[in-house]
């Protein structure tokens, strides 16, 4: 009987008591362990949540950002390339590649058949063979479209898988083949801008070129047309900004699709614009005439005896459009007299002429933004005969771009031009170089002479209505086995427009053209290259925003020197037959 | 003894509550991280799609292709150079010689190049020269 209000503890004695106390102590030890564990967790939480976040945040973030940097470096996507107006001309996209784990393939026949319906380009025999090997891993197909990838995923075979890779894509295909260049499958620049700007692009930075997609297309179209029309081997077309030296269009034909650069033939891969060097012939009369006017301070009426061919050493200098009379400067230039030009060179003197050519950049490899640069072939040793022959373009080979840049320096007012493929800051335009090569006056005289060649001389077919274009043709015989070949020609034209104050230089070169019925069998520059320049200018004036109804024939700059030309009627007829 | 029991139960409840809260927070954080990586992946996928579309757009706007389409599909041709005029007043006069616009020939300083429809059509037969 006990009272409920009275508390009575039960005391267990003996063995039971001992057991109870052991249990209690175990419990408390367990409890302590739990508390300790939670304490550790709480402390860790405090450490992560407060100490590391708010008190010492730098250490942690540094680690993370370092890891990110490394990841970024590995995964950096190659930068894009744009034309001067922001049109995309090279980009990198992720493209999945399909792989197979041969050890996991159950039925190679069935799997190959399924894949063949999805990927028509896959080599079935090769795929079947791959699936039967003992390898752990093998690539099955590259360049898979997203739709194909989806279809393969729907097959759902565990032996198949994808890994994405960066793939370089050239949406303009062949249009910028030689200037832009291409990369290897691993993304290493192999030619053109891709090669010379490999570091910039590989670092993920974009590059904007001075080239203009629209001009590039027009130039390519017209040069290609001439190659087809005259069954020529190759061609080059260039448009250069006369002041900044920016290459607005640069075409070397034949070219190749950059997306399939591996299939390009050597003749297609060869960059004729900067790597190829050619004797460009009479165009050099621009430089010898400029040297004469600048260095000898002679007037336009300076006369040269072109009655007889010149014999010097083993050379015989002859005129193609033989006038057989005494010619003045505009006549020598307009009739493209080799004898006259040789005498001009002689008058200037070997050393002076050499120095002048060097200043124009015709004696050294061009300093340009791509690495495919041809070194000019200069006469070695430089004899007296060399002075005479280089005056009309024999014995000195240069790249077409080099020649174009030199012409720019002559006609733009006389300031040295460095050609570039990168776009210059627009605010500074026109970028004037501070290196003067010839005076304003000589430059103006040269422009008059160039205009005269188009209005009266060999480049009549380059005349565009509404735009005063000036230029000079050059027909050179190619050297085959050490001798000049009379039937393998290089026909070229270099011009500037508007000639009053040139902004653009245009250069066209056609390699080994053949005469047609329309050209009366002639393959000379006046018939082949000059019309190309005309067609190019016609199709780009609206793009360049030049006005074509402001030209007044009565104000033409060539009128000032027209009185120097004698016996016009007769000579005009003779010229029309050849346009050399 | 009673006090100890109370104390323990309070501590225990607190522990359970904090454990639950901790669990909750960690779950939330994990979910958010999953969300972030999901969104990141989506963003990257979209960016990649945009790149592909840009490349495709550039390819479709390839002048060689456009020119072929323009000549074959629409019978368009390059305007002759004589069809370009730099004085818009002349252009307007073609359509409304009697209108007041004819008096605006004073704006000849404008350099915009406009297509001259008459010249264009008259040259159409000639083609290239």
What does this structure look like?
The complex is a heterodimer of chains A (580) and B (129). Chain A has 580 residues and is α+β, with helices and mostly antiparallel strands. In chain A, 39% of the residues lie in helices and 16% in strands. Among the domains of chain A are: 94-101 and 136-167, no CATH class; 216-576, DD-peptidase/beta-lactamase superfamily (Beta-lactamase). In chain A, strand 9 (310-312) and strand 10 form a beta hairpin. By secondary structure, chain B is mainly α. Among the domains of chain B are: 41-78; 79-121, no CATH class. Chain B has helices at 2-60, 63-73, 88-95, 117-123; strands spanning 84-85, 114-115. Chain B has a two-stranded antiparallel sheet. The N and C termini of chain B lie far apart (115 Å). Residues 99-129 of chain B have low confidence and may be disordered.
